[in-house]
Request: fold
Amino acid sequence: VSANSALIDGKQASAVGYTDRGLQYGDGLFETIHCQQGQPRWLRLHFDRLRRGLTRLQIAFDRFDALQAEIRSLAAGHPRCLVKVIVTRGEASRRGYAPCPDAVPTRIVSCHEWPVEPLTSNEFRVGLSSVRLGINPCLAGLKHLNRLEQVLAQQQMTHNAWNEVLMLSTGGRVISGSMSNVFFVGAQGLFTPRLHECGVEGVMRRVVLEAAAAIGVAVCEREISMAELTQVDEVFLTNVRLGVQSVTWLEGRAVHGRQFAQRLQRQIDATHS
Amino acid sequence: VSANSALIDGKQASAVGYTDRGLQYGDGLFETIHCQQGQPRWLRLHFDRLRRGLTRLQIAFDRFDALQAEIRSLAAGHPRCLVKVIVTRGEASRRGYAPCPDAVPTRIVSCHEWPVEPLTSNEFRVGLSSVRLGINPCLAGLKHLNRLEQVLAQQQMTHNAWNEVLMLSTGGRVISGSMSNVFFVGAQGLFTPRLHECGVEGVMRRVVLEAAAAIGVAVCEREISMAELTQVDEVFLTNVRLGVQSVTWLEGRAVHGRQFAQRLQRQIDATHS
Reply:
């Protein structure tokens, strides 16, 4: 598995045209898919989110069958890997932000080694990013290619040797990690940020919400302030790579709760094994 | 002059590696430079803004001499053209938002025909976009590659046969056009939006501010609400392609003033001919 092996519009390739609007404007979407024994997990949820993004951006892409075959072909033979899918609006035939009606979307499917965990202990430390997420309901929830805020936030994370950074919106609400969604447990139970203003509607977030419903645990999706977080007993993050990841340290404070994360992880393992 | 002729890291090429962070995350910057008789105009201002962006994003690019030579070589022989420069953080050697310390920035220089004006009259119609600009001081002012908001705004512009759309921030302030900066003339004189929260610090905006200073016209950079715009006598837009462009119709209302745009254009022509 090499980061240089990719299928671009179905063909083995390593480069895209420089006029591609994915490069020119970040005009596209992506998905990162966990594959086990050659099988993509939660593919329906990934494709659902991709479809929502395509509709919102008005990108006329419908090659989901080809995409599925390409994902499976790259994942084949790997016990575990991440397959990244990018769909852009395609190459531009002219300058300017306005989409050309004749653009043909580009699809890029690449396979990546399952990351060796950098964790040397059971600690998972999450600091607060000073980089905030701009509010834009037009783009909220989508996994689009405009990711500079996450890039800047992860520069900070690396400098501080944190495992993840918590990000607020420019309106001061708690939204997510730079590469994960976040759940909290307080006196009123389980809660997670609403993502109508910014943030990505993660596939693992959806899996956790479904698992919680299945075991009868209510999850409140709502606006959350930083001040509330001093009161929480448990914090966990979700993405398809980390699964359900308990946080042991949040912005200067040890967090001890593990119970909800463990119950939800067990439910997910039982349902999706 | 073809949209397919580009210099990528100094070599004639038409494609970039798909792992380039410009494509993966919009992790880069661009400039669009007006060249006349083979000479780039306002190159110092373009390079100043590019440098500010590189510093803000912590991209270690310093090949300005090479860039300048490449711009001149593509512009040579063309009476008038646009040269677009993209600088990305370069190809990623691993997955994830965090920049790899060993990434070598990619530079892409392409030459584009001077656009034939689509204007069939002296009208220049500007509608109000329902797509707003997310507020983010970390990225405000920069001409970075995260341009989905502008893409969505121009979809609306095209549907309505407007020449440009006026964009507000998610905070409700007037910021800019989708591809231009904007100036207004009211009872208190000339004013233009502050760009500390969002928007691009345009090169032509800077040229206009310098021209105004040269002829003793004060320009107030400040927060502007939509309500104020019903009172303005003159509106003009700026970018390096349009120069100083008077607006004749703004969101349902004819605008008649031309005086400041003409004085400033004359001053710019006199200084930069």
Q: What stands out?
A: The first strand of chain B starts at residue 6 and ends at 8.
